[in-house]
Amino acid sequence: MSGTDFLPIKGWDHVEFYVGNAKQAAHFYEKTFGFKPVAKLGLETGCRDRASYVMQQGQVRFILSNALTPDHEIARHAALHGDGVRTIALEVDDVDTSMEAVRTRGATIVQPAGAFEDESGTLKSGVIKYAGDTLIKLVERRSYRGVFAPGYQPLEVDGAPTTGLVAIDHIVTNVHLGEMNYWVNWFERVMGFTQLAHFTDEDISTEYSALMSKVMEDGRKIKLPINEPAEGRKKSQIDEYLEWYNGPGVQHVAMNTADICATVRELRKREIDFLCVPDTYYEDLADRVGSIDEDFAELQDLGILVDRDDDGYLLQIFTQPLQDRPTLFFEVIERHGSRGFGVGNFKALFVSLEREQAKRGNL
Ligand code: FE2
Questions:
Q1: Which pTM value belongs to this model?
Q2: CA 235, 237, 239, 241 torsion: positive or negative?
């Protein structure tokens, strides 16, 4: 990386999902994951072609959007991909200079830097293309005091109790075989990111399938791993995603909690389904990860995975896909020093993933 940071990023701003039915999705995200609806856009606010709900928990902000007209780009996206992530939005100090920086470095511009105003001030944003139909949005909100963005009406809802999710940890994208290095170079060149870690199919393979993964990061704030399938004896979970999503896109969004046992206990009570972890995973866990603060029996009871590296350890769990297509899912993660992604769990996880894939007849 060069000496000057040409694209200083303050943090995650939001993630926008294009869905088939935003009203029902908002209800699901509120009652299960514990997000609070804080603002809305739709017919009541004078928007006649789409409806969007802003859902907030801790620093995590999700936008759930659906189309109100048949030819809308949201309708086409939802028909092609199913419910999924359209936009990863990052907060910057200055959208004009940031967009100019990425444009001169080769970004494909979808929406040039623009200013949007209402009585709460001015919000600036610009949008560039990322893998498949996924977009990256740069947002400048230092001159905006409203709840989310101009056009949105704040909602006064108490909301369901939270589940302890506090922030976005990382967002993983799946791309086709041979495309991972293109996007690694793109992040280095266009966004000024650096490569944190790199797993080969030696690390992440099972008898049937494999994947390769590289993690791109901006400082310690933004981590965007990229997966591509590797040759396996049967179809990998990445291939399955690419088939059902009809191309590259976001595979999972990982969110931090300060107490993963409490979060997962609450999510299970609210009927969120997680990947099943084989009991054999826990047999030699203490030998693999050493001493940790949590109780191994409770982790096994809740299906939580543990991994350790030189910096510390992490606890993580993966949900089942959040829609009928085997595409997007969530991860809940609690870090104790480790900056990794649970590479030691990949194999145990994939054995489990493939069992689910076989049940769907896709292996
Ligand atoms: Fe992850």
A1: 0.94
A2: positive
